[in-house]
Amino acid sequence: MVVLSFVYRLPPLLEAADTNSDAAIVGLQAMHILRGEFAWLLFGSTYQTSVDSLVAAAWFAVLGPTPFALMLSALVGHVVLTLLAYGTLARYVSKACAAWLVLPLIFCPAAVHGNALYPPRQAALTLVFAALFVLDGADRARGARTRAAAGGVLSVVACFADPYALIFLPLIGLHLVFAAWGGTRALGATAARVGAGVVGMVVGTMPLALLLSSPGSRHGETKLTMDVLAHNFAILREACLPWVLGTKVYAPLHEMDYVPWVAPPAVVAVQWLGVVALGGLLVVAAFAPRVPWAVRRIGLVGLVAVPLTVGGFLLSPMVMDHFSARYLVAMMLLLPFALAPAAYALTTRRFAWCVAPYLVSAAVGGWVAYAPATEGFAVRTNLSRDDEAMGARLRGLGVHVAMADYWVAYRETFVFREDPIVVPSHLAQDRYRPYREVFARGGEYAYLVDRWRSEESEVTIRERLELAGVRFERIEEGDLVAFVVRAPPGKTPGLASR
């Protein structure tokens, strides 16, 4: 499982420098943590914390502050999550069967596996599965209350790491009650174990409460509203649900321009066979007779995740487009739990044959979405050398500050190791104010344009510079273009002071 997890994700891991600015912010904060600068909140965030940055800092201390170390920190977290799911399931089904059950966590569509390489959320997801694994011990005769309390603490600490983990709390509570009752049918003993878990959650809530009461915190991201129901349902039906189920694949043409992939007819057939087989397995999981309670309760936790996740998606004001499929990840991560009763009822070999079409469909869809790092079965490398070459040229010209679109600014700052420092072109997109202060004090600066990431075109930037009447020099490295401006930022009206 460990080997498969790494081999399947080699393309994005080898091209780690191709990361986006949201992930790069985690790496930048990790660099600052190693210098003794600490903050509870993630740079520029009002709700995400620096837990992922702390994890990345530990990797940086060993491997150095590189994009590879940043992506590795997230991927290892996902591998740990996979092993925790396996360890939980292996208590109730054979080890071979548990291995087949967790394969959807390894071979999965891009909408799901993107979280495995997305540092701002991975720590929270790993903590959720650590809580599920520990709470599963609440059905044991010895140490049940201790495990219940520890699992309760972990579940709320996960929410502290990222509010996305809140969607798992009802499922964790259900898992706690089922495990506590399954270990002893005595009402008093069950209540004591559940109570220990609740006490653990209360204790774990303390850092979360301090975060929510801090002046910089904002809670709008966790609210639900009926006003977005029709809008979200259309996106769910047309884009997000097909993507996570594998019947539709979005892949980038170049970098961030994801469009539907036109799959060959044979792949389309496997996609639909896979989703039909998956639906059949879920029906078997819900209604199969003669399944032990211990296995059925694990399945119920996974099955309840489906309406809970879909309901949260439909009422969330954060749903915007097909990329919002990431908000359906909870039910896909708990898919191994949901399928456990079916695997038990069918036995390992029959279950393997039934789930194989979905695994093939998901694996193909995920691999295609790694483009441009993949081309067919081949893995392409050295795609990110433009960044290194551009950084070297700017430093050679004595340019140590720059400006760019948000999706270029922070990823380049991280790849450049803060030399040059690149700030967003809009003040409202600042994630770390001291960068802006360094930029304002700078002399000559560069305006960076990435042909496939920047919202503004090279032509637009050139026209604006010419209108400002400043001298500039154009340099180019692959898909990156830099306009080196021979004037301080404050001398470029309408461009460097927005």
Number of strands: 9
**Strand neighbour order, sheet with most strands:** 6-5-7-9-8
- Strand % is 5-15%
Radius of gyration, in angstroms, nearest whole number: 24 Å
Overall mean pLDDT:
87
Oligomer: single chain
Please outline the major beta sheet. 5 strands, mixed
Helix content: 55-70%
Class from helix and strand fractions: alpha/beta
Number of domains: 2
Q: So what's the overall shape?
A: globular
Q: Give the uncertain stretches in residue-range form.
A: none
Q: What is the CA-CA span between the terminal residues? A: 49 Å
* H-E string: HHHHHHHHHHHHEEHHHHHEEHEHEHEHEE
Secondary structure tally, helices: 21
Q: Would you kindly provide a brief summary of this structure?
A:
This protein has about 500 residues and is an alpha/beta fold. It has helices at about 1-10, 10-15, 20-35, 50-65, 65-90, 95-105, 110-115, 120-135, 145-160, 170-185, 185-210, 230-245, 265-285, 295-315, 330-335, 335-345, 350-370, 385-395, 405-415, 435-440, 460-470; strands at about 250, 260, 375, 380, 400-405, 420-425, 445-450, 470-475, 480-485. This is Glycosyltransferase RgtA/B/C/D-like domain-containing protein.
Structure description:
The chain crosses the membrane at residues 38-62, 68-86, 98-116, 150-178, 190-212, 265-288, 300-319, 325-344, 351-370. It comes from Pendulispora albinea. Keywords: Membrane, Transmembrane, Transmembrane helix. This is Glycosyltransferase RgtA/B/C/D-like domain-containing protein. There is one protein chain. The protein is α/β, with parallel strands linked by helices. The chain has 2 domains: 2-378, no CATH class; 385-491, 3-Layer(aba) Sandwich (D-Maltodextrin-Binding Protein, domain 2). Helix content is 60%, strand content 7%. The protein has helices spanning 2-8, 10-14, 21-34, 51-63, 67-89, 95-106, 110-113, 119-135, 144-161, 169-183, 187-212, 229-245, 265-287, 293-315, 329-333, 335-346, 348-368, 385-396, 406-415, 433-441, 458-468, and strands at 250-252, 258-260, 374-375, 378-379, 401-404, 421-424, 445-450, 472-477, 480-485. The strands form 3 sheets. Strands 6-5-7-9-8 form a 5-stranded mixed sheet. Strands 1-2 form a two-stranded antiparallel ribbon. A hairpin with a 2-residue loop joins strand 3 (374-375) and strand 4 (378-379). The radius of gyration is 24 Å and the shape is globular.
